[in-house]
Amino acid sequence: MALYARAEGNWLSVASLISLMADVCGAEAPGVRSSISRLKRRGIILSERHAGQAGYSLAASTLEVLAEGDVRIFERRRATAEDGWIMVVFSVPESEREKRHALRTTLTRLGFGTAAPGVWVAPGNLGSETRHTLERRGLAPYVDIFQGDYVAFGDPRAKVSSWFDLDELTAMYADFLHRYRPVLYRTTSGAMDPQGAFSEYVPMLTHWRRLPYRDPGLPMSLLPPGWIGESAGALFDDLNQVLSPLAQKHALSVIHGGEKEAGGGR
Fold first, then answer.
1. Where are the alpha helices (DSSP H) in 42-165?
2. Buried b (16+ CB within 10 A) or exposed e, 146-156
3. How confident is the model at residue 263 (pLDDT cuts 50, 70, 90)?
4. What does the alpha-carbon distance between residue 138 and residue 253 come to, in Å, rounded to a whole number?
5. What number of H helices and E strands is found in the chain?
């Protein structure tokens, strides 16, 4: 929904959502309605009617998160050595253990690594996003944030390998490359119609969007030679360029076709 509702006045009909989900994963109407209900209860989407049609819009807080995510997913800003580091330490009372879990989950999702027990570190260019995210999630009262340079002792490249799980990240990028290089070949060879592109694009984007959050965008000087993340990022850019217009064409045909059918039935 988030992918296409924003370009359609932040609203999609229920009928369109059901049809699009069926095209992506073969989901049936009851399952889609159940998923929509869960999102509505969590305040992620809002129920609205347009011209007598039932549908949903994205909540203001959801739109804010999506706008921030667009930067991570599509721009992938890489830090430089001059950005330094941001360090986060937190203290949570035992009576609020759920906050400790929320902090760890949030920092991991932002791309932080652990320099020592209870000491989380990330490239300095993530400072503003980190502050904003922690404030939005009500976690700021438990956190202290410091920003500066690594002075001593040791080789920064070796330190990075211990702070961040580069092996896991490498495996995630390798999986993306393995799965989606064949998709790019099929698309560029002309063997992909709009509906086929839609059914490939949405899962591909869903798969990819986790990676820029796990990857903090470390300076290239601190990464292994021939860093696989660059190849995976280039593949994503190519896939996005060729699949997105076709997928959007199909999505809009469903959205506006559904509106016409609903309008004709009133």
1. 60-70, 97-110, 127-136, 156-163
2. eeeebeeeeee
3. very low
4. 41
5. 11, 7
Tens of pLDDT, residue by residue over 197-208, are: 999 999 999 999
Strand partners of residue 90? 143
What is the spatial distance between Cα 141 and Cα 127, in angstroms, rounded to a whole number? 16
To 10 degrees, what angle do helices 228-264 and 14-25 make? 140
93-106 tens-digit pLDDT: 888 889 999 999 99
Task: State residue 190's pLDDT score.
Answer: 78
Residues facing residue 48 across a β-bridge: 55
Neighbours of 250 (CB within 10 A): 19
Q: How far apart are the first and last CA of the chain?
A: 25
Token reading at 176: 């993306």
Distance between CA atoms of 201 and 184, rounded to whole angstroms? 10
The residues pairing with 52 across neighbouring beta strands, listed in sequence order, are none
In sign, the C-alpha dihedral spanning 17, 210, 85, 137 is positive
CB atoms within 10 A of CB 193: 11
Domains of the chain, earliest start first: 2-62 (1.10.10.10), 85-148 (3.30.70), 166-253 (no CATH)
